[in-house]
Amino acid sequence: MFDHEALDDLDRVAASDALAEVRRRVLAVEAEQLYLAAHWADLHAPEFVSDCLDLLPGSPAPGAEGTKQLGGDGCPEMSEFAGVELAALLGRTTGSGEELLVDAVTLRHRHPGLWRGIREGRVRVWLAIRAGRLCTSAQLTQEQAHWVDDRTTPYVETLPPGRYLALVRATIIAADPAAAEERARAAELARFVRAGQTDEHGLRTLVARARAGDVTVLVAVIDRIAAILSDRGDTDPVEVRRATALRVLANPAEALHLLTSAALDHLDPAAETGDATEPADETVSETGSVDLVAERRAAAAGERSDGRFVGHPEEWIGWMRDSSGDFLPHACTRRDLQDTDLRAPRGCGTSRWPDDLPLELDLHPAPGLAPSRPPDPPDPAAAAERQDPPVPPGRDGESDPASGLGGVDLLRAVVVNAERAASRLTPTCVLHVHASTESVTTGAGVVRVEEIGPMVGEQARSWLTGEHGGTSPGVGRMRIRVQPVLDPDRVAPVDRYEVPATMRQAVEELQPYSPFPYATTASRRCDQDHVVPYRPQGPAGQTRVESLQPLGRRHHRVKTFGSWQVVGAERGAYWWRTPTGHWFHVGPAGTRPIGRDRDFDSALGVA
Predict the structure, then answer these.
(1) % of the chain exceeding 70 in pLDDT
(2) pLDDT on residue 602
(3) What is the dihedral sign for C-alpha 520, 522, 525, 530?
């Protein structure tokens, strides 16, 4: 603690001196913590683990504590559970405590210059840690790390952090240029799709790394769907519509319905004018898009109006164009939709599409994706051999003799059946939404969605109904099935070690997170641990809601093999004691450190 009232009496000069002194003390305290972490690692060397295992009867059980090397080349081994107690004592998560141990031994054994500067109060701990991690991630040997340390540490006090770290990266490359090139090639091959954490507004970031061509095609489809949403009345900004398009792609049938129906709007004059009257024979419409009637009449002569040949009639259905008249990428074939109910519309001469009938909607790739040479003209001899009609249908409503269907009729059928499939192919997911009565009835309160976080009640409602706060009509709507709420008090105990599914669900509802000190693991990703170890010959009903707690796998092993002790306080609350005797209370409100207390030990019956 400090005398904050005395700060009001400081003038500008005295305040500047106080700030400089505070910086010195902060550096000293951070250095002390780092040195203590390194000493903690020494106290948990392999000999410590061997001594602990010697106290156990028989051979070590599966899951017992072992040793592992933390850090890069040249760092020592230590106890596997060493970072768990360190993290609790420092009020950190287990992962953060283990990182501190790694950073401490890394700097001590691989970066002696930085280690000395920290001890002397000249180097900021966080900056030294960043430099050490850069060398470790580059998999430098201990000798190479020393080389980098010698050439960069003199600048750690004089350069701004960004320039100093840039110097470290450059020196790492100079330490082993061949390895740096290999790392660069490996980075180019790294591909992934990752979802970030949800923010306070209920938004989440999706990051993807893939081949440039794959990303280009995906972005093109997203842009196309965003344009269609705008044509259908979505007034959101383009970036918001692109995000909505990503949601549409989660249901392929919904995306197919949207894309195909948009293509039908451009192909079918009746859809554009409201009747079946053929529009004027103009090459370019008022909107600047190419008139498809002129295209069809040119097709009767075996070529497009732009001079390119048209494919075989079975392959010719029509062309999918966007609002600017550019061609879209190829669509799909009948076999691509083999799980979709594709019944032909009435009056088309057939009840179902032939399996070999292509649904190719564009024979000419979009700009940038065109083949290196124009497609070959149709072979009349081959057409005669197949006994196929030599020209495509030229008017709406005319049927293709090979299939009994016209191009627009085929598109209409795809639209209808894709719409049906979209309702059946909506992804299924289970959401656990925690809400008060006020939030449910008024939408004005706060709700919590597990694995996502808190959000406004109205936002959750629009999200679940598929509106997403946007203006896209009918896009992304979901079917919701509400499961009955499980009453934990009605879950009966069982006389076996295994935890029934209903009991597990009840424990997860009562304890959303692992009740280990400062744990962040959601209970639905945890093991179910018996607070009092299960005894095969023990009393009946040992497995019940009150006797279970959700623990992550690491913390479960620590409790079983790591000399930690736990005592149940009340439902969902526990007293934890570290191997060195420090107590923590963990409950719905979080973790509260108690410290070492012998009276507390005696009161709870712990030696």
Answers:
(1) 66
(2) 84
(3) positive
E strand map for 352-445: 433-434
Amino acid at 285: S
The pairs formed by 561-566 with CB atoms below 8 angstroms and a separation of 24 or more are 561/61, 561/63, 561/64, 561/65, 561/81, 562/65, 562/81, 562/84, 563/52, 564/84, 565/606, 566/531
What is residue 110's three-state secondary structure?
helix
Least confident of 30-44, 57-71, 379-393, 449-463: 379-393
Cα(482)–Cα(430) distance, rounded to whole angstroms? 10
Mean pLDDT, residues 214-225: 85
Radius of gyration of the chain (CA): 34
Contact 249, 222 (CB under 8 A): yes
518: left (phi over 0), alpha (psi -120 to 50) or beta: left
How many CB atoms are located within 10 Å of the residue 226 CB?
A: 23
* The predicted structure's pLDDT at residue 91: 95
Q: Which of 453, 434, 465, 522 is nearest to 196 (CA)?
A: 453
SS3 568: strand
More confident residue, 415 or 396: 415
Segment 220-239 shows an average pLDDT of 88
Q: pLDDT digits over 477-499, tens only?
A: 566 777 777 888 889 999 999 99
Domain ranges within the chain, ordered by starting residue: 4-189, 251-424, 495-603
Residues 200 and 120: their CA atoms lie apart, in Å, by 41
Contact present, 163 and 127 (Cβ < 8 Å): no
Per DSSP, helices labelled H in 444-567 are 457-464, 501-510, 553-561
Number of Cβ within a 10 Å radius of residue 57 = 4
Q: How far apart are CA 538 and CA 531, in angstroms?
A: 14
- Averaged pLDDT, 31-40: 96
How wide is the angle at C-alpha 606 spanned by C-alphas 605 and 607, nearest 5°? 120
Q: Torsion angle of alpha carbons 216, 222, 228, 232, nearest 10°?
A: -160
Encoded tokens for 550: 């959700």
Q: Taking 50 as the threshold, does the pLDDT of residue 188 lie above it?
A: yes
Cα angle 364, 366, 370 (rounded to 5 degrees) comes to 65
Q: Are 10 and 21 in contact (CB under 8 A)?
A: no
CA 325, distance to chain mean position in Å, is 36
Q: What is the pLDDT of residues 347-388, one digit of tens each?
A: 444 444 444 433 333 333 333 333 334 445 555 555 455 454
**b/e code 306-335 from CB counts within 10 Å (16+ = b):** eeeebbbbbebbbbbbbbeeebbebbbebe
Type and span of the H or E element at 593: strand 590-596
* 174 closest CA partner among 203, 140, 216: 140
Top-confidence residue, 416 or 604: 604
